[in-house]
Amino acid sequence: MIPSIAPTAAPRKTALAKFSGHRLLTSPGGLAGTVWLAALVLASLTAPLWLPYKTEDQDFTAVLSGPSVVHWLGTDELGRDLLSRIFSSAAETLGTSLITAVVGVGLGTILAMAAAASFRAEGIISRITEIMMSLPGTVIMLAVIGAVGINIPLIMAILGVLISSGIYRVMLGQAKSLQSQLYVDAAKVDGVGPLGIGLRHVLPGLANTIVVQSALIFAVGMLIQAGLAFIGFGPPLPKPSWGGMIQSASQHVYDAPWLMVPTGAVLALTVLSANAIGNALGKAPNATASHLPSAAIRRKRAADAAASAAAAPAGDNLPAAGQLSVRGLSVGVDGGTPLVTDVTFDVAPGTVLGLVGESGCGKTMTALSLLGLLPSGVSVSAGQILWNGKNLASATEKDLEGIRGRDIALISQEPMRALDPMFTVGYQLTAAVRRLGRAGKAEARAEALSLLEKVGIVDARRILRSYPHQISGGMAQRVAIALALSGKPRLLVADEPTTALDVTVQAEILSLLRSLVKDTGMSVVMVTHDLGVVADICDNVAVMYAGQVVESGRTASILDNPRHPYTLALLAADPHANTAHDMPERLATIKGQVPQPKDWPAGCRFAARCQFAGSACTIPVPLLPSGSEDGEVRCVKADELAVEGLEWVATDVPTHRVLEIVEKDMA
Amino acid sequence: MAMFVAKRLLMALATVLVVAVLAFLLVHAMPGSPGAVSLGAGASQEAIEELNQRLGWNDPLFVQFFRWLGDAVQGNFGASLIDGRSVSADLASRLPVTASLAAGTTVLSAILGIALGVTAAVRGGLLDRILGGFVGLLVALPPFWIGIIFVYLFAVQSSVFPATGYVPFEVSPQDWALSLALPIITLAVGAAAFLARQTRASMLEALQQEHIRTLRATATPTWKILYIHALRYASLPIVAGIALQFMGLFGGSVIAEQLFAMPGLGQAVQASVSTHDAPAVQGVVVIATIVVVAVNLLLELATKFLDPKLRAS
């Protein structure tokens, strides 16, 4: 196993706030919404200073008039100026709606935090909110109005209480996940009380959701308040309110339809503004990419594929049937960061190639590109994937659909998530067999059974009837393998197929894969970070680091005679690779972590973490024959290291050695 | 399963009981005694006192409550203070109006909302952005404003639909449908916009699931991935959204009922609250709660049926 340093830093309050503010002002909707709300509040608060009329001024020469020079937005049935009435009532409308937002979101947050902090509290609070949510809100609100009279701030506060149960539901999951963070446990051990934890660790993490929900509830409050005024539960009559104004406009929809427009537009714009602010802040910064790109993206890709296929017909030196040849493959985020650059490898029929490296080295992206299954937003930017006379890198979706499952199949890392939770194993497997094997229903059912038996499932009939959540992880991976075998593929792409499984199950799955390779003669591309897996099953290895192949060759020669410092380091850091008798006192580590694609240096990408790096490492390094069989290595010092017989050391790098090397380098 | 249903039924019963207590207390907090409300402004103090005595207003609160509850359990919510009619009979005649409105709105908004939401999620690109903007606008427009615009367009400018009023189904099914059209369309606009958002978000979330990749890796046709697998995965939150809309419409349709002069439950709440008609308010609160709690119960059962994980447990 390769030690990797996961970023564990808690999200910082200030960073979060800054980020949100930035998002608000960079999104056009959020900016427009903020400007409109600010302008409305300012205009309303200063209304007495600039409005041309008082709200009750009646102009009998212009009753129900449209927009004119004297009355910009027209007048109502008593000749009162609409502009003056709309703006002078704005501040109160916004202010009282804010009460709903503050009470609703505030109470909801407090409840969520209390529930997250204690299991017992959660049971009680969840019950109560469940009851609250199954109440007819509007009817209760009106009954309250009957009891307390038309006291708008109080009514809006009660609306907030009713809404808080919904907010609680939104917040609870997030509060619970914050509460269960390791640093919260650490704080508890340090003796920080529940209140301190809530204020210091949970609340800051909820900040963004609080703002988003407040904006949205603010809008809801405004609409409900206007609705109440519309049905006659607004402020007492001469006083203007937006809902009341629309109500009186509705009486004149026959003779003065214009009257509907200004108030409706201002109300809609204000609600729209609040929603826009909420949406701008609420947008997830890096939402998980879709596994099925939208039709618009698929159309664009099809066009690109057609164009590049026309531009570069697959070369003359096509590989033999059943052989996969990847040539100079680059994969990147659309229109930006590269994730994989210039990767080349071959997989001969019946052989197993291991793609090895730490997380974030581009192994999975390379593997997924073989089936054209890169997530949306990521695509092949250069190179060829040659398979059966076709270049899959520029194949159309239709061509790929003919290849997936039948020629090249996939098994992935988390078997439980790879199966559709909504359908039985039998349904999923039979459907695949029918599709890929073009078999009839009964035939497919029998084939599904025999596939499950082939992957070593004893009570296949029961498993067929089960839903994915009813079977164990190891069983699910066997099912996923059966699913992958349903089209009798010639190449299996296995993306860390054993990582998520228990150690004993890992061994079983590996031996299953090994026997399948032997029996069916299919080839495998095995993505893994476990050198034990490599030693166990792979014929060839390509070690990947930061989107590049840094060393490749036959498994035996790479494991016995590694040439690249990264391979050396991986071996030195692997507890299984060090057998009992030569187990070092201290297992080696690799300082730092794999750099983000945007931070890749122009020279050797491993240089920053390498114990042997020198000044020669700052220029781009080509992949050169390593001398042992058909191996290749991407390191300017490979020969030197081999001659000197240097090893990756467990302790921190002795400085004298680095100096020594640098000095040599200079000479 | 039976255990689950029994537990939930008990919970529902408790909810209704809590609301009954709440409704009773709220109504007692209303300004004015029933005698004063019933006899109007001109009545003498003695007459009011005498009526209050007859209505049991001066009895201890819990005596009044259990008397009311005992009657309510038998379906008797007393007589209106305003016109003396039986509250139960009045509500019974109003329930079909609101039920038609709510059912029609739910069906229409579900069809529109799911179609729009799925389209936006599946097609993506420019169409998604245009639909998103459109839906955002519809969510922001107050329903009563939309209703008035519809009246203006379809009843005033061109008399396709009647502007107001309700025709019972028994009188004329065709007129019944026509009289419901505008209120249903009005209410469905906002509801459909809400459901379109919910559907879009749920579909996108479904498409982010890893099993979608497995389906593609086994050459599942795109239409099948979208409309069988992803939609099935997204169905839980969508169904919850639909039920939420339906529940909201019981009583929440008050604006449409007011606007289109529909004699439904919403209008009853509005009227009885305005006139301080205590028995009517109590009755309508309890009836609306029973309907909403019942729908909630159905939703839970539906969820249990839709989610294999819950069904098995």
Q: How does the SSE layout of this entry go?
A:
The complex is a heterodimer of chains A (667) and B (313).
Chain A: H1 13-26, H2 28-45, H3 47-50, H4 82-88, H5 90-117, H6 119-133, H7 137-148, H8 152-179, H9 182-189, H10 194-230, H11 242-250, H12 260-282, H13 295-311, E1 324-333, E2 338-347, E3 352-356, H14 363-369, E4 378-387, E5 390-391, H15 397-403, E6 408-411, H16 415-418, H17 425-437, H18 441-454, H19 460-465, H20 473-485, E7 491-495, H21 503-520, E8 523-528, H22 531-537, E9 540-545, E10 548-554, H23 555-560, H24 565-573, E11 624-625, E12 632-633, H25 638-644, H26 655-666
Parallel strand pairs in A: 3-8, 3-9, 6-7, 7-8
Antiparallel strand pairs in A: 1-2, 1-4, 4-5, 9-10, 10-12, 11-12
Helix pairs in contact in A: 1-2, 1-10, 2-12, 5-6, 5-8, 5-10, 6-8, 7-8, 8-10, 10-11, 10-12, 11-12, 17-18, 18-20
Chain B: H1 2-29, H2 34-39, H3 45-55, H4 61-73, H5 87-123, H6 125-140, H7 143-157, H8 173-207, H9 210-217, H10 222-252, H11 254-259, H12 265-274, H13 278-306, H14 308-312
Keywords:
heterodimer; A: 667 residues; alpha/beta; MetI-like fold; Rossmann fold; four-stranded antiparallel sheet; B: 313 residues; mainly alpha; 14 helices; globular
Fold and architecture overview:
The complex is a heterodimer of chains A (667) and B (313). With 667 residues, chain A is an alpha/beta fold. Chain A has helices spanning 13-26, 28-45, 47-50, 82-88, 90-117, 119-133, 137-148, 152-179, 182-189, 194-230, 242-250, 260-282, 295-311, 363-369, 397-403, 415-418, 425-437, 441-454, 460-465, 473-485, 503-520, 531-537, 555-560, 565-573, 638-644, 655-666; strands at 324-333, 338-347, 352-356, 378-387, 390-391, 408-411, 491-495, 523-528, 540-545, 548-554, 624-625, 632-633. Among the domains of chain A are: 77-282, MetI-like fold, CATH 1.10.3720.10; 295-404, Rossmann fold; 556-666, no CATH class. Helices cover 51% and strands 10% of the residues of chain A. In chain A, β9 and β10 form a beta hairpin. The longest helix of chain B has 37 residues, at 87-123. Chain B is an all-alpha fold and 313 residues long. Chain B is globular. Chain B has one domain (93-312): Orthogonal Bundle (MetI-like fold), CATH 1.10.3720.10. At the A-B interface, α6, α7, α10, α11 and α12 of A face α1, α5, α6, α7 and α9 of B.
